[in-house]
């Protein structure tokens, strides 16, 4: 029988690395492999006699290693710190002639950057060379080695032209972008862990008349599981004994608890808010709904592509072309009788003018400035690549609760009936709810504290009853026809359409109708208007009831709104948009949004949302302001335009000056000056984004 195997792979820097490993693994007889660059994991199905050590050898022979990837991130961070500490003073002093240090000082300082900090680029360039391929890593490695090597030659030969700052700045800037990228890829795994952590490790199982605590993973289909008040449900099942309220916001995203009774289905991860429940298991932990959603997250993040690999695609042609031109320049000049020194000088001028300083920082500089702009507006752009994708977004899908609304219930309407005093009725209702942790109860209890209730009983699915000043009252919800003053109740209910409702009654007479809802954020309407002006379609997908979703959509003038939407349906809706050629961003805050956030082109999480939502999203809005959503789209469009301008600057110098260098009309000193000017142009252009914030 085929066996499944998963291995962590260290050393991948782009999707081309993953494809190369996957190709070599699939050459092994009896092995079917898929290498996921996002999670840095190889998923293998082995049907033959191939062992894990055989698989490991294939991966290592390809130039990568097997094991935990966490140390790699620490090493990468250390390289960034060392590179930055050296590059900043070297770059600053190199810009002003009066500040310049002796050349030998630069040679010593930059050596660790050129050799150790830039080592990942050199290693990948060597792997690419063996595979007869070139990427951005090849370009960076070539530029660093040529810049440092020529500068060292000038130092030894007694010359005065050096490009040590190039060898320091290029690998450092590109590594900063690489570090951010790796951190983002790791967060996909973190979001899955956060999802699965909602399932308790232990379950109380009733077997053969006794109760025992066992690992949740060992609970079998058909087992009876006891869930006490305050505990989370460990497995998917059906209630066979007990009734009460559960907080199912992990899956629905809604703060209003659900009432369950015998025969009700209940999902793992739900929080039992009231009395004990006995559940018959119909799905084990590995196939629970939460587990299936975690699988959806893995699949969704694995299918994402890195659009900012433009420089890699260009460099696959550009780098070989530059090397060929440099070699031809040397050969032709030497063949026509030029001295060896002149021929070498012309060839070096070609390589120096083609040095990837401007090209290497063209994308990272714009992304760095844009990321800083976002941070000043309370927007954490955890994956800078998302800005290039966000630029193409034509549809924004919004969760309702916690995104468009605050997520906190508040009493909005109180209507007195049967001629009673409204303030006294509010005091009675507040007294009845004061001891409850139910979100609706907490909101009502805050209205008044002047009365006390005794003999309070919570009847799940019916309401709460208790004695106030010698009279028995009930606070809950029933159909209008069940009250003596049904006509009056029906009229009052029209005023609270779309809200959560509680009715205070004495005997069979309704005394007070209370309407509760979570407030719409004050910036939501402006955000929707801004997206509309940008030509972006807006859709609301919510797990809430139809009336409340419709009311919010109507107030915000959103045409497309769907209610009672499950996490799976949210992801399905986004996949449908993708099949229609749409590029959609998903905005949410809860565990029920995680699969959709991961499966969208760009996920945007609200700052007060769950850790899993923020881990699955590329962008987090710290202050929860909906206006940050429209600002992020505007920022992405400006950033992508800036990146394209930078690439034009970077390649413009190469295209114009490489032929000049090849003709021997540009010595290495002028080539270095032109190259430096191209880098300054790119930096200044990227900094223009700061003035546009």
Keywords:
six-stranded antiparallel beta sheet, 24 helices, 51% helix, seven-stranded mixed beta sheet, 26 strands, 693 residues, alpha+beta
Can you characterise this structure?
The protein is of the alpha+beta class and 693 residues long. It is built from 24 helices and 26 strands. Strands 14-26-25-24-15-22-23 form a 7-stranded mixed beta sheet, sandwiched between helices. A hairpin with a 4-residue loop joins strand 2 (31-36) and strand 3. Helix 4 (103-117) runs antiparallel to helix 6 (136-157), helix 11 packs antiparallel against helix 23 (627-662) and helix 12 runs parallel beside helix 24 (668-691). It starts with a strand and ends with a helix. Mean pLDDT is 83; it is low at 302-308.
């Amino acid at each position: 029988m085929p066996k499944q195997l998963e291995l962590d792979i260290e050393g991948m820097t782009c999707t081309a690395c993953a494809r190369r490993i996957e190709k070599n693994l699939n050459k092994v007889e009896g092995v079917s492999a898929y290498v996921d660059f996002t999670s840095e994991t190889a998923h293998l199905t082995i049907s033959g006699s191939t062992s894990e050590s055989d698989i490991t050898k294939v991966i290592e022979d390809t130039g990568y290693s097997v094991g935990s990837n966490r140390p790699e991130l620490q090493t990468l961070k250390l390289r960034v710190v060392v590179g930055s500490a050296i590059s900043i003073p070297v770059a600053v002093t190199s810009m002003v002639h009066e500040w310049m240090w002796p050349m030998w000082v630069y040679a010593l300082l930059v050596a660790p950057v050129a050799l150790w900090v830039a080592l990942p680029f050199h290693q990948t360039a060597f792997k690419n060379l063996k595979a007869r391929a070139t990427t951005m890593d090849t370009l960076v490695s070539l530029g660093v080695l040529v810049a440092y090597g020529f500068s060292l030659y000038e130092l030894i030969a007694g010359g005065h032209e050096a490009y040590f700052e190039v060898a320091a700045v290029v690998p450092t800037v590109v590594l900063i972008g690489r570090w951010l990228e790796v951190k983002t890829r790791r967060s996909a795994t973190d979001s899955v862990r956060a999802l699965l952590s909602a399932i308790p490790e232990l379950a109380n199982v009733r077997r053969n008349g006794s109760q025992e605590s066992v690992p949740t993973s060992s609970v079998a289909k058909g087992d009876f599981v006891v869930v006490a008040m305050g505990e989370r449900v460990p497995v998917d099942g059906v209630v066979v004994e007990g009734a009460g309220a559960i907080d199912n916001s992990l899956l629905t995203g809604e703060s209003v608890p659900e009432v369950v009774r015998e025969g009700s289905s209940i999902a793992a991860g739900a929080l039992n808010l009231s009395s004990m429940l006995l559940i018959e298991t119909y799905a084990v932990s590995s196939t629970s709904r939460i587990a299936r959603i975690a699988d959806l997250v893995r699949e969704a993040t694995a299918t994402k592509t890195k659009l900012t690999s433009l420089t890699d695609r260009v460099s696959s042609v550009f780098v070989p072309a530059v090397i060929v031109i440099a070699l031809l320049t040397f050969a032709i000049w030497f063949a026509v009788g030029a001295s060896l020194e002149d021929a070498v000088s012309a060839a070096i001028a070609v390589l120096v003018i083609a040095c990837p300083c401007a090209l290497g920082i063209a994308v990272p500089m714009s992304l760095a400035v844009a990321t800083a702009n976002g941070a000043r507006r309370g927007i954490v752009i955890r994956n800078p690549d998302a800005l290039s994708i966000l630029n193409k977004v034509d549809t924004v899908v919004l969760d309702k609760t916690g995104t468009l609304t605050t997520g906190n219930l508040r009493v909005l309407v109180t209507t007195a009936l049967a001629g009673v005093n409204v303030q006294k009725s509010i005091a009675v209702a507040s007294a009845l709810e004061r001891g409850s942790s139910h979100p609706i109860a907490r909101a009502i209890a805050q209205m008044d504290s002047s009365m006390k209730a005794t003999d309070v009983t919570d009847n799940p699915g019916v309401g709460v009853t208790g004695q106030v000043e010698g009279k028995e009252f009930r606070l809950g919800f029933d159909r209008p026809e069940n009250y003596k003053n049904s006509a009056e109740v029906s009229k009052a209910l029209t005023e609270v359409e779309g809200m959560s409702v509680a009715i205070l009654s004495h005997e069979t007479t309704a005394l007070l109708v209370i309407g509760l809802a979570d407030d719409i954020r004050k910036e939501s309407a402006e955000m929707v208007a801004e997206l509309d002006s940008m030509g972006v379609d807006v859709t609301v997908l919510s797990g809430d009831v139809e009336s409340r979703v419709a009311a919010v959509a109507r107030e915000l003038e959103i045409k497309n709104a769907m209610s009672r939407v499950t996490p799976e349906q949210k992801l399905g809706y986004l996949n449908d948009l993708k099949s229609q050629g749409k590029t959609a961003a998903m905005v949410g805050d809860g565990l029920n949004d995680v699969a959709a956030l991961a499966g969208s082109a760009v996920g945007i999480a609200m700052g007060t949302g769950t850790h899993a939502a923020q881990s699955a999203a590329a962008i987090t809005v710290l202050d929860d302001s909906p206006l940050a959503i429209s600002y992020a789209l505007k920022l992405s469009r400006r950033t992508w335009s800036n990146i394209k301008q930078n690439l034009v600057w970077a390649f413009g110098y190469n295209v114009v000056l490489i032929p000049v260098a090849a003709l021997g009309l540009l010595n290495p000193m002028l080539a270095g000056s032109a190259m430096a000017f191209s880098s300054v142009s790119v930096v200044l252009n990227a900094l223009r984004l700061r003035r546009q914030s």
